[in-house]
Amino acid sequence: MKQDVFQAIADPTRRAILALIAIQALTPNVMAEKFDMSRQAVSKHIKVLHECKLIKPVQSGREIYYHFNPKKMQEFDKWLSQFRKIQEIQFNQLDKVLSTIKKQKK
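and the corresponding structure tokens:
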């Protein structure tokens, strides 16, 4: 089953894993230690993040390091930016209304 990016980042543990991996690539064992959870539990989170392409595995010897995928996050940020623009327009309109009201009171 292909995971949705929004479902993936809805989970606080997965968001925390992303934040850690964005700083430094980590192995599943290191993640399990940092989150005080089993390797199996971490693997389930990794699977969801990997299916969404938010992280990518890189083999290094016998270990697999998971790296943050900034390109996928840029897609998400681009989607969010449309809402930022709408909000900015609304705030600008509110500023104009407040300015007009202030001028009328003088």
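(Above: one complete record from the training split.) The radius of gyration is 21 Å.
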